[in-house]
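Incident log, structure service

09:12 report received: a user says their structure output differs between two submissions of the same chain.
09:20 pulled the input from the user's history:
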Amino acid sequence: MILLARVNHLLVRVQKDFSEIGIEPDWTFHSEFLFKILLAILAGFFIGIEREYKGKDAGLKTNMLVSAGSCAYVILSLQFLGSEFTDVTRVLSQVVTGIGFLGAGVILKREDTIHGLTTAATVWCSAAAGCIAALYMITNLMLFTAAVVAVNIIFGLLDKKI
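09:34 re-ran on a clean worker, output below:
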């Protein structure tokens, strides 16, 4: 409930009849949309640069695109906030489900070991960063992104020593 109140407060959009969405072209420029997408891309960049540096399958581009795509889907769902018979939180759950399939593509079993779990989890975190950016939770996005990068770097180093 608090999340919906926050989204309602932060969402800036033209009020129109929901039955008209998508029928007529909307040529208006929404700076909030652009800024949220750029925030998501930036978060995906910081998360992905560490993966790229380590030469992982899902690197810079993948994490940036996953973050931007997640952000766009959540922004689109927020257009229906307040309409009857609509649950905008369903899109968040579908992002998680969809990213699960993408993450499964980087997990490989070789002999007695499994590779790609951390990369899959990182892609999942990039999707979460995109969702956070879509909700304009900038401080939370910065903290979350820093935490993901720190976990990958610190525990990557510890993993090599153990």
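09:41 both user submissions now match this output. Likely a transient worker issue. Closing.
09:42 reviewer note: The two ends are 44 Å apart (CA to CA). The chain is about 65% helix and 5% strand.
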